[in-house]
Design a protein that fits this description.
alpha+beta, 166 residues, single chain, elongated, 3 helices, 3-stranded mixed sheet, 8 strands, disordered N terminus
């Protein structure tokens, strides 16, 4: 039984990977990156959730445009098989971890809580980033952190930034 669960998870991962591969170029042509592909069972159906994003954020109209393209690609493909599914295309939530250089770039100016591989944690504002590291302002001082040293990084919700004034 445990082997069936592992195989099921393997199969789900294989389908998600095939979907991402099929959608990457068409969505990139529209200027969108695939941030996540998730397949979850829902009774006799499945729910296929695809999160897309781009520099500067994604609008509702762009999510609609991405949905049309995802539908077109999936209709022309057999990657989802015969079992019915419900498609949800969305933007990534604020609870998405920063795992790629583009995530850091897209969150320039935002407050981020970073936990490093050695277990230490700090919160700072993203000032700059490149393909290897990000520079944050932590308690008024610059702190560089290499992505390889980051165990977890999450954007912190701010209702009103202190530097925005009254």
């Amino acid at each position: 039984m445990q082997g069936e669960i592992a195989l099921s998870a393997e199969r789900k991962d294989a389908i998600a990977s095939a979907i991402e591969k099929a959608l990457a170029d068409p969505l990139q042509t529209l200027g969108f990156d695939i941030e996540a592909v998730e397949i979850t069972p829902a009774g006799k159906r499945r729910i296929l959730r695809i999160a897309v994003d781009k520099d500067g954020g994604i609008t509702h109209e762009e999510v609609t445009e991405a949905t049309r393209e995802v539908n077109r690609v999936l209709d022309e493909s057999d990657v989802m098989g015969e079992q019915p599914y419900t498609l949800e295309v969305t933007s990534p939530g604020v609870d998405r971890p920063l795992t790629l250089p583009r995530h850091w770039r897209r969150n320039k100016g935002r407050l981020v809580k970073v936990t490093t591989a050695d277990g230490s944690a700090f919160t700072g504002r993203v000032k700059e980033s490149d393909e290897e590291r990000a520079s944050l302002e932590v308690s008024g001082k610059r702190r560089d952190v290499a992505y390889a040293d980051v165990k977890k990084a999450l954007v912190q919700i701010e209702f009103k930034r202190i530097d925005e004034g009254e």
